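Why predict the complex rather than its parts? Because the way molecules touch one another can change local conformation, and only a joint prediction can capture that. The input here totals 675 residues.
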Amino acid sequence: MMARLNTLAVLATSLTAVSGQYYQRLGTCPTLGCVLPPDQQDFLPGQYFDLRLEVHAPVNGSEAFNNGVPDEKFTVTIAKEGGGAAEDVAKFFKLDEPQVEKWTFKWYEDLYAEDAKQASVVNVASKIYRRLALYEPGKYTVTLNYYDGQKTTAEWVVRPLATEKKAKNIILFIGDGMTTNMITAARLLGHKTINGKYQSNLQLDHFPVIGHQMTHSIDTFITDSANSASALYSGHKSTVNAMGVYADSSPDIYDDPKVETIVELLKRIWGSAWGAVSTAFIADATPTALTAHTRSRGAYGPLIDQALNSVTNYTWTNHGGPDVYFGGGAEQFIAGSGSYQGKDYYQEFAKANYTVSWNKTALAAIPNNEKALGIFCRSNLPVWIDRNILPDNTKNLTNDPSGAKAAATDLPGLKDMTLKAIDVLHRRGGDRGFFLMSEAASIDKQMHALDYDRALGDLLELDDTVRATVAHLEAIGELESTLVLVTADHGHGFDVFGGVDTQYLRDQKTDRERRKAVGVYQNSGLSNYQVEAPGVSYSTGPNFPVNWDPRYAIAAGFGANPDRRENYRLSPTPRTPATNTPGHSSADYFANGADAPDGFVVNGTLPTNEAQGVHSLTDVAVYAMGPCQETFGGTYSNIDVFYKMANCLGLARPDAGRAGRRRSIEKGVAGGELG
Ligand SMILES: *[C@@H]1O[C@H](CO)[C@@H](O)[C@H](O)[C@H]1NC(C)=O
Ligand SMILES: *[C@@H]1O[C@H](CO)[C@@H](O)[C@H](O)[C@H]1NC(C)=O
Ligand SMILES: *[C@@H]1O[C@H](CO)[C@@H](O)[C@H](O)[C@H]1NC(C)=O
Ligand SMILES: *[C@@H]1O[C@H](CO)[C@@H](O)[C@H](O)[C@H]1NC(C)=O
Ligand SMILES: *[C@@H]1O[C@H](CO)[C@@H](O)[C@H](O)[C@H]1NC(C)=O
Ligand SMILES: *[C@@H]1O[C@H](CO)[C@@H](O)[C@H](O)[C@H]1NC(C)=O
Ligand SMILES: [Zn+2]
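Output of the joint prediction:
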């Protein structure tokens, strides 16, 4: 040990010593012994999870240890606070001892090492215990003993039991990337004020309870949509790009230690119906994180298979397949175009008795008693503005969901898909209730493209969908029994800082003169999006702008952006803010001259290999209405959204197998405790 400590002391003074910051050997594992789930994790009583142990032996680099030979004779124990001595994990969970696995991985210690192409090599010995559960609430300590005296401990908390089902249904709306700043801007565009007083409001403004959730990943403060969705759905934080697992260091992206998600729990415990609706391609992170267990969100084909068939590669649990699955992303369904094993996934779903629809007309005709797959285009659904204001932008696309080289023309929106999903889930769930996740995906996608108007259009579409959902739940008699939540997975550094005279801007000769068109404070004026201009009438109904392209527009922008041009007007085609430039590498982006050509250049703050905006640090809002709404006030972690939902659904279970408890659980399942 002394030798090791001396080495570290010397290296600590060198500039390139491991910081584990920009790059990390393994995010959740600062020592050479890794316990996954790591320290400080929470669990729902009875929730399935896998436990992986890794012992690292760095071959070279600043952490080189033991000649690169990992300890294969490590042991692991678990102890419950106040529950007696630590026990061997295999004995505690009554499992056979798994085989030791071995692999090697490489990583860069920092940017200097990457520039020098000097990857550090690490040899690993590992074991994984699959499908465990802890039933008794309390604190547990897991201890990994390795290298003859080294210890890594993980303190876990199993939260209190909550077996009573207080909400029959939950509808979880996710405005992907949606912040309070965006909601404020959308309200300004979609609603009229007179002398500072709004004449109408967002539906969100009528929710009785608002909270804030902190979105950080387990090992970075900026999150992506994969692990943030996973935290909302499972109560376990993870690493960027990972869903339903704690990321391990093995080469296999499917063997990482899994955690059970809300739909897997709901199916197993209550047999409820569940569904997902998204305006993204349905293999995207937010919808697939309900069922996906992988370190790599980009494994689109396999993730669609996991959505239909559950995890088939490893011992796990069966979520029964979604009762409704509506969105875009035909690529993962058409045989050979990106589908799992090249199979026709329309056929695979049809074989599992799903009605398959490809357009809005067919969607409306789906029988409510059947499982339903609706894939309405390739890629993401065209956004609300292009569907409703600039439909020419949808006519030249080759996004027909059948695979034909044609445009998908009969497209549903978020509201059509969500209302139909509710009808199918309500019918199929019956007394067992349902869970629906409905995602407005392009708030995020269009914010990435700095296309503020298209992002805010989809935010207004989300609000309109929530409004229609509340009315529909009331009409079918389910409003009192349904918890409706509206939240986001993360934010973008977007805000509005003034008004713009876009006509004056256009008529100036230089960038510096054009910037004078931006009016701040007393020159910001009032919203003109509710003022009809001659010849401009979009007639898209109340709660949306009557003019999307007023002379006096909002001056909006980003806390982080690539080089770009701004004219603050509705972009006639979806926006591409930054592009490559001849003579520069393809990973180097400059302001796109064809975007807002009459605008001015705003140089970026991001590394120049970023072509779009990126996610930001901000907490995001949680709007709650219905049973358990009061538990959603305050500020909490994103994982708490899961625990609050799980407690409201009575998913925190004691061991159903234990004598004396079985009867009460069976009574719970069968009993009419839903009211
Ligand atoms: C580690 O060893 C490998 C060769 O096995 C080499 O490519 C790499 O540059 C070395 N890394 C460091 C940090 O020395
Ligand atoms: C199952 O595992 C294999 C091997 O890792 C992988 O190629 C395949 O994509 C996985 N399938 C699914 C559906 O996860
Ligand atoms: C599909 O429905 C048929 C007829 O009701 C039934 O026999 C079959 O088991 C179902 N298949 C699946 C995969 O659920
Ligand atoms: C909608 O899909 C159905 C098949 O489900 C097809 O018969 C119909 O022609 C489609 N309608 C349009 C407008 O594409
Ligand atoms: C669509 O295609 C037509 C014919 O090629 C062309 O005239 C038109 O400008 C295109 N529209 C858009 C929005 O790209
Ligand atoms: C933007 O950066 C470029 C160099 O990359 C510079 O030539 C130009 O003057 C900058 N423009 C502004 C408006 O700052
Ligand atoms: Zn997101």
